[in-house]
Amino acid sequence: MPTDKKNPLYYVWEYNDVDRAFWQEHMADWLPMKIFDAHTHINDPRHRLVKPTQAMRQQYWVNEVFEPIGADDAKRCYSTVFPDREFSCLAFGMPSLDYDLQASNTSLQQATVQKGWYSLAVIRPQWSAQTVVDLLNKEHVIGVKVYYSLISEDTGSRDKHIEDSIYEFLPHHQLEVLNEYKSWVTLHVPKADRLGHPDNIREIREIHERYPNIKLVIAHLGRCYTLEHAQEALPQLSDMPGIYFDNSAVLNPQVHRYAMELLGPNRILYGTDNPIFYMRGRRQWHKRTYTNRTNYPFYFNTDRESPEIEAHYTLYMYEALRAIKSAAQDLNWSRDEIDLLFCGNAQKLIADCTHKI
Ligand SMILES: [Zn+2]
Question: At how many degrees (to 10) do helices 101-115 and 71-81 cross?
Answer without folding.
Answer: 50
